[in-house]
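Hi U.,

Before I forget, here's the chain from the pilot set. I'm dumping it here mostly so it's searchable later in email.
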Amino acid sequence: MAAPEPTTGVILAGGRAARMGGRDKAFAAVEGEPIAVRTVRLFHRLFPQVIVATHRPERFRGLDVETVSDRYPDCGPLGGIHAAMLASRHPWLFVVACDMPGLDPDVIGWLLARPRTADAVVPRWDDDVEPLHALYAAHTLPVVERCLAGGRHAMREFLPAINVDYVGEHELRTLGGAARSLLNVNTPEDLAAVGGRFEEAER
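Structure:
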């Protein structure tokens, strides 16, 4: 099997975390370590470039990452993907949300090794799609820009505009760590369910 094309790892950390009471869920601790720190450490193992899309770059100082700010503010994840595509040095980007404490290197590696015959590789899970644990070609940047400029900010509006290789849940379930890798924590209850808590003072 040929080696995967060079890929940038992207962490989206620009959300308002309304369901977390406005607290920065990227820095909620799971197993005593902030989710963001866990993700950055993993991404440094997997990717030659690591980008965090955030409106609070000071939170990521000292983590050896590049930070980017949205050119299209308040446009959700697609705005962060756009900013990361502009900064990426590689033809592909693997994008995750900042609230995924169980990211599994074997699951990510399996997705990275999948033949890149489409514009994106996006998992299906629990009768839905997971566009924030997914691979995107940087050459889709013009499509991203057209969507943003046209007010189509939702990932569900962007995905139909490109050619997507949707990975079936039945395939993912053959990978032991898929359920945990795809888990995100959107609420205090979600965080408590994985043994997480807010430990640090806001910095």
